[in-house]
Amino acid sequence: MEDKKLEELFEDQNFDIKEPHTGHRDRFMEKLEAERKDHKSGVKIKKLWAPLVSVAALLAIAFMLFGTYFSENQKPGELAGVSPQMKKTEQFYTKMIKTELANLKAKESPATQKIVKDALNQLQKLESDYSKLEQDLRKSGKDKRVIYAMISNFQQRIDLLEKVLKQIEETKTLKTTGNENYI
Fold first, then answer.
1. pLDDT, tens only, 37-67
2. Are 86 and 49 found together in one domain?
3. Contact partners, residue 74, CB within 8 Å, separation at least 6
4. Do 165 and 97 belong together in one domain?
């Protein structure tokens, strides 16, 4: 269809042969120059963005590498690796166990040495069980049953230490009250 219009234009000889208005060339050149300046500023912006994008990419890569490094410091089988809440739970129980263990060692005496030694052996067994649970956690991929078993293990260790401390106190009380009765 466009070919027909073009043919009609030549057949009718209806060409636009009028001269443009005065100043048309100047206005055209101004617009052309303004367009060229906009294009040059766009090139400057592109030149400015290229280094910024590369710096941002480098920062992103650096964060990913450091994030990977720091997450590798956390063993995958640890309870702390499951979630921030589990990390707090593990820290709480670990602190409690250390406190109770320090109390137990502080109350150790020749009279309670056998009880303390037995408690430390039982504690060692529970810690060995916990190590197996850590391996299970690595294999199972955050299975809730394993997580609950790990928490239960912490509780058993604390209960053991508290029970032994109570037994030591009772032993000391019996010895002092037993001696008082004979006086």
1. 766 555 555 566 666 666 677 777 776 766 6
2. no
3. 80, 81
4. yes
In terms of domains, do 126 and 155 share one? Answer: yes
Helix intervals (H) in the chain: 2-12, 24-73, 84-106, 113-140, 144-182
pTM attached to this predicted model: 0.54
Q: How far apart are CA 115 and CA 183, in angstroms?
A: 28
6 within some domain: no
Largest separation between any pair of C-alpha atoms in the chain: 142
Please provide the size of the chain in residues.
Answer: 183
Domain range for 44 is 21-73
**Is the CB of residue 137 less than 8 Å from the CB of residue 80?**
no
In-domain check, residue 46? yes
Return the sign of the alpha-carbon dihedral for residues 68, 70, 73, 76.
negative
Final residue of a domain: which of 44, 73, 102?
A: 73
Asked whether the beta carbons of 151 and 89 are under 8 A apart, the reply is: yes
Q: Tell me: the pLDDT tens digits for 12-44? A: 766 666 777 788 888 888 888 888 776 655 555
Classify 17 as helix, strand or coil.
coil
Whole-angstrom distance, CA of residue 69 vs CA of residue 80: 16
